Amino acid sequence: MEKPVYVLEFEKPLRELTKELDSLHQKSLENNLDLSTEVRAMEKLIEQAQRDIYSNLTPWQRVQIARHPKRPYALDYVGMICEGFQELHGDRQFRDDRALIGGTAFFNGEAVMIIAQQKGRDTKENILRNFGMPQPEGYRKALRLLKTAERFQLPVLTFIDTPGAYPGIESEARHVSEAIAVNLREMAMLRVPSIAVVVGEGGSGGALGIGVTDRVLIFENSYYSVISPEGCAAILWKDRAAAPKAAAALQLNATTLASLGVVDEVLPEPFGGAQTDPAQAAAALKAALQKHLGELRALDADTLVNTRYERYRHLGSYLEAGVEHR
Known about the structure:
Elements: H1 12-31, H2 36-54, H3 59-66, H4 74-81, E1 82-87, E2 100-107, E3 110-117, H5 123-128, H6 136-151, E4 156-162, H7 169-173, H8 176-188, E5 194-203, H9 204-208, E6 215-219, E7 223-225, H10 229-236, H11 243-249, H12 254-259, E8 265-267, H13 278-297, H14 301-313, E9 318-320, E10 323-325
Parallel strand pairs: 3-4, 4-5, 5-6, 5-7, 6-8
Antiparallel strand pairs: 1-2, 2-3, 9-10
């Protein structure tokens, strides 16, 4: 039995064309007919539809791709670009948070520390991973691993993929905002190279809690924002259904983030998103990490810290009395 294909709303016209192509192939086989002319014509229609759809994606459509259930998650990328990943558990204070994972691995033959937010593929796994929303103990585990990396001089690679930190009462009771704030401070002072990659969603302080790094990379259909579109819509328009309007207002576009200096490189994805060819997306990620890690490894610890400070100190711009400040 074939597994159901997950199709986004804006992809449905393309899906219908693909069904028609499959029908032509089946008809050709069953009736021993030469339908090569019709097949070529349909293939051209599909190629044109792909160009029309994926070359003109709206911010909300990119958010939908970032959330695609078949999109590669952190552990998928780690498995494709690293070797010997050894997961380390627990924050040594409360419990192990399965939404935020970490451990050592070898990248390009070099030992590194991996810290990543991980979602689940199905309902059972999503419950286990808390839908990729870390709780305070997750950020405290990350802090423990950051300090371990610093002690053993291991570069840090973080993978961001969360709609935000878990906002529940128990999370607040265990001081999630304090846990994130401590990570921001400690990552800013980390004396080893660090690179963050936004592989899917990058929502709010939940993403920033492992994102204060020397370099920030983002896949072209990922987003990195102060708030999720639904959260923004609920605040500004009192209606989560206004999320597409919020996504446009937030300019959830990776190239916009690059032009503002929020991210250092936009990683290309296959047409339709990384889920259509995970190996190709992983290859682009590996090449980018090799380049940036090589550059950072050439810097001493003091230069790393000072450069990182300057990066975040001068991030952004604002207008005051008609004068722009950066």
